[in-house]
Design brief:
The protein is an alpha/beta fold. The protein has one domain: Rossmann fold (3-Layer(aba) Sandwich), CATH 3.40.50.2020. It is built from 3 helices and 8 strands; from the N terminus they run E-E-H-E-E-H-E-H-E-E-E. The strands form 2 sheets. The chain has a 6-stranded mixed sheet with strand order 4-3-2-5-6-7. The longest helix has 14 residues. It is globular and about 45 Å long. It starts with a strand and ends in a 6-residue tail after the last strand.
């Protein structure tokens, strides 16, 4: 298993023109918080937060925890959104949030991740890494 340590300059590679139609950003906590706020500031749009985390347990094969912090229907109804996360591993979390936000807003949101382990993912991304690569983002270090 390899490790990839990214620097803060990874944010400089984000092109705001990719998302120029977005009217708001939904950042998936915790990894999507920094790039989500960064992109929302570039676009001068509001940034909202959800927590969606999948994991495997002994008794439960897969589980997804989901918390909606401040996304309300009146904030997103019929508006174009952008979901942001740090990494696309299996894609389960991103697909769940996309489906949830589409049901809430009535509009299919765009998706962006910094890193993907699946080059065929349904999100725009900056880089692809091997499936066994451990990625360390700059906001995860002390």
């Amino acid at each position: 298993m390899g490790e990839l340590r990214l620097s803060w300059s990874v944010l400089d590679s984000i092109n705001a023109d990719w998302f120029k139609n977005a009217e708001y950003v939904v950042a998936i906590l915790s990894g999507g918080a920094v790039p989500g706020i960064y992109i929302a500031n570039l676009l001068d749009v509001p940034c909202y937060f959800v927590r969606a985390k999948g994991y495997r347990g002994r008794l439960i094969t897969e589980k997804l925890e989901f918390s909606n912090f401040d996304v309300a229907e009146d904030k997103v109804k019929s508006r174009k959104g952008l979901i942001v996360d740090d990494i696309y591993d299996t894609g389960r979390t991103l697909r769940f949030v996309r489906r949830w936000l589409h049901e809430l807003s009535g509009v299919t949101p765009m998706c962006f991740v910094l890193v993907t382990k699946d080059p065929d993912c349904d999100a725009r991304y900056l880089m692809t890494v091997a499936s066994d690569t451990w990625v360390v983002f700059p906001w995860e270090t002390k």
